[in-house]
Design goal:
There is one protein chain. Strands 2-1-3-4-5 form a 5-stranded parallel β-sheet, sandwiched between helices. It has one domain: Rossmann fold (3-Layer(aba) Sandwich), CATH 3.40.50.2300. It is of the alpha/beta class and 145 residues long. The N terminus is likely disordered. It contains 5 helices and 5 strands; from the N terminus they run E-H-E-H-E-H-E-H-E-H. Helices cover 41% and strands 17% of the residues.
């Protein structure tokens, strides 16, 4: 990963991002970077604990590694999609077209191959969250009659 300038698209409110990644050094880096960008962050080091956190914390977005111990990220994603449409950005050391297509078909909202720039990751997070909030049902104001 290459550090770059921080994103100017900081969240209006502290959206919670769940990181599911078994590389502890990467998790520490992402927690620091996302925290500095204004996000609340929680992390899990396995798919099983990540599924529990996803249910308990209701994150605004999940950063999900594909290569996890015991249960891989794609299996996790298929299980998650049975109960939630929370946005998911896959992080993976595999970046071929086939890998990206499989991840997107499994239900991911975006796919970022490792190594990645922190600036680009922040921009992709902001973009996915912006799209999700634009797609959210708008509250209708009562008409004045």
């Amino acid at each position: 990963m290459t550090p770059t300038a921080r994103s100017s698209g900081a969240p209006a409110a502290a959206a919670t991002i769940l990181i599911i990644e078994d590389e502890r050094d990467l998790v520490r880096l992402l927690k620091r970077c996302l925290g500095e960008a204004g996000y609340a962050v929680c992390a899990a080091f396995s798919a099983e604990s990540g599924l529990k956190l996803a249910r308990d914390e209701s994150p605004a977005l999940i950063l999900l590694d594909i290569a996890l111990p015991a249960m891989d990220g794609l299996t996790f994603l298929r299980l998650l999609r049975k109960e939630s449409q929370v946005p998911v950005i896959l992080l993976s050391g595999r970046g071929t077209d086939v890998d990206r297509i499989l991840g997107l078909k499994a239900g991911a909202d975006d796919y970022v191959p490792k190594p990645f720039s922190l600036g680009e990751l922040l921009a992709r997070i902001a973009c996915v969250l912006r799209r999700r909030s634009a797609d959210a049902p708008k509250k209708r104001r009562p008409s004045a009659s």
